[in-house]
Amino acid sequence: MTDTTIRPAGPGEDTAPTIRPLLHYTAHSTWLNDPNGLVFYQGLYHLFYQNNPFDNVWGNMSWGHATSEDLLHWTEHPVAIACDDQEDIFSGSVVVDAGNTAGFGTPGNPALVAIYTSAFKEGTEHQGTQAQSLAFSTDAGMTWHKYAGNPVLGRGSAHFRDPKVFRFEGPAGSYWVMVAVEAQHQEVVLYRSADLKDWEYLSTFGPANATGGEWECPDLFPLPVDGNPDDVRWVMVVNINPGAVAGGSGGQYFVGHFDGVRFTADADSMVEDGNANLRDCLWLDWGRDYYAAVSFSNVPGSRRVMIAWMSNWDYANSLPTSPWRSSMSLAREVGLATVNGRPRLIQRPVLPTDSGRSLLTVAELEVHDSTVALPDAEHGSVQMIEADILPGTARTVALTLLGAPDGGAATVLSFDTVTNQLTLDRRRSGNTSFHAKFASAESTPVTLEDGVLKLQVVVDHGSVEVFAQGGKVTITDLVFPTPGNVAIGLTVEGGTAMVRRLSVTALS
Fold first, then answer.
1. Among this protein's residues, is 55 annotated catalytic?
2. Which residues pair with 414 in a beta bridge?
3. Is 0.90 surpassed by the pTM of this model?
4. Which of 102, 229, 362, 453: CA 20 to 30 A from 128?
5. Is residue 17 predicted with pLDDT exceeding 90?
6. Cα separation of 284 and 251, whole Å?
7. C-alpha dist (Å) from residue 501 to 162, 237, 387, 454
8. What percent of the chain is helix, strand and coil (3-state, nearest 5)?
9. Plot region of 341 (φ>0 → left; ψ -120 to 50 → alpha; else → beta)
10. H, E, C per residue of 446-497
11. How many alpha carbons lie under 13 Å from residue 304 in its C-beta half-sphere?
12. Cβ(388)–Cβ(397) under 8 Å?
């Protein structure tokens, strides 16, 4: 199998309404779900992911593999770690074993080590259980070998999975830490190891906040608050399915402290009876299609970059795309900032470093009970809309995206000034009939800053990602517009709004 560079669809390939995304990774002709083993090494970002090498529906779980220099344009490689008659290869992580602690490499050529979940098949020694195993690469991630001593950590559990491993430096020394889940107990379990092979139990976090489904794909990492190196908090990410705020799959997080043994969430991260108060929990994203989010290891400059599967288990196997099915979100650089006196995640999309091609720039535009047409979406490019708007006396301010020429069907992003709710509505976005749970409208509270609504909206072929108030709030949804529905507009109803600045840019 040769490497395949993923590019936008050409003539006669993947025609609308299932046009391949431009800046969102898709496997060439197969299924993908959770990102795994995210690592930066020797100038490349490595994206491993749950992959069915033989079909475009879930099954035969193996680790697919793609690399990128910029987190936007990806090259697909052969399957990295394949399922076999003993095990399916479930989610996990990759570390650079710079100290050669596991002995798979040399001091001059450290190994990449994958820590993954073995889902053992019927008739095998460990049938019916999930346990953690190792694979290693000494050629910069291009070929992988399973460790002969697998599995290295088991609990006799059928739902012990998704190990995220990182190097911890603290008063007690330097060692590897694993965060994994007992999925059906809504618990994150933590272990430590000197060599990635022998593991010692540390502690358990949870259940807490949203617990209405299985906990999956945890992550744990430090971030300075407001860039202050003297005020570092730890962020615990826990994905959940079902039971997320928008329905089905989603990701929650907690802010707190980690001492090398135990993660303790800050009181303002905790919600009493989170299942009854889902909207008070801390969510990575308020949309329907941002799941299994985890962060890259080893990124230069201590940057924390996350990526997620852009789908939802409610309808993932039914998405109307071919020959591939499912894509990844845009990568997001995340940080902690003080919001209303509390440290909260800020997420900003990783976008092309050039400025793109400007389609429109306006400033100080007053709009009263009317619609302003913006440049149509263009095939072969991604539209980015950035706006600072003073809603003023208006009741609603809305962007219509990928709309019909006659002003009918569209995806609508609207802000209600009475309720302070930002809503992404895809109920009339185009093809929604392939699954009963797809048509939906997602809303989130947004606090204006000096009276201003700040929006950054990225519209790719098949998706809308919204970053509001500088990334304090995000909404991610898939959309499948009818061919020819490319209209974009700004609508103000119930009064007058002032557009301080609005730009439309074509990215590629």
1. no
2. 398, 423
3. yes
4. 102
5. no
6. 5
7. 44, 34, 6, 10
8. 5, 50, 45
9. left
10. CCCECCEEEEEEEEECCEEEEEEHHHCEEEEEECCCCCCCCEEEEEEEEEEE
11. 20
12. no
How far apart are the C-alpha atoms of 196 and 153, rounded to whole Å? 10
Residues 6+ apart with CB under 8 A from 150: 118, 133, 134
Which residue type is seen at 322? S
Measured from the Cβ of residue 199, the count of other Cβ atoms closer than 10 Å reads 22
Q: Which residues contact 86 (CB under 8 A, 6 or more apart)?
A: 118, 120, 121, 124
pLDDT at 447 over 50: yes
Residues in the chain: 508
> Tell me, what amino acid is at 396?
T
**Which of 3, 34, 85, 198 does the annotation list as catalytic?**
34
CA dist., res. 30 & res. 32, Å (int):
7
Tokens of 500: 């301080």
- How far apart CA 384 and CA 349 sit, in angstroms, is 11
Task: For residue 481, give the nearest of 414, 424, 426 by alpha carbon.
Answer: 426
**Residue 93: strand, helix, or coil:** strand
Would you say the C-alpha torsion 180, 185, 187, 189 has a positive or negative sign? negative
pLDDT tens sequence across 199-226? 999 999 999 999 999 999 999 999 999 9
DSSP category for residue 184: G
Q: Which two tokens stand for residue 118?
A: 């073995």
Question: Could you say which DSSP state residue 144 is in?
Answer: -
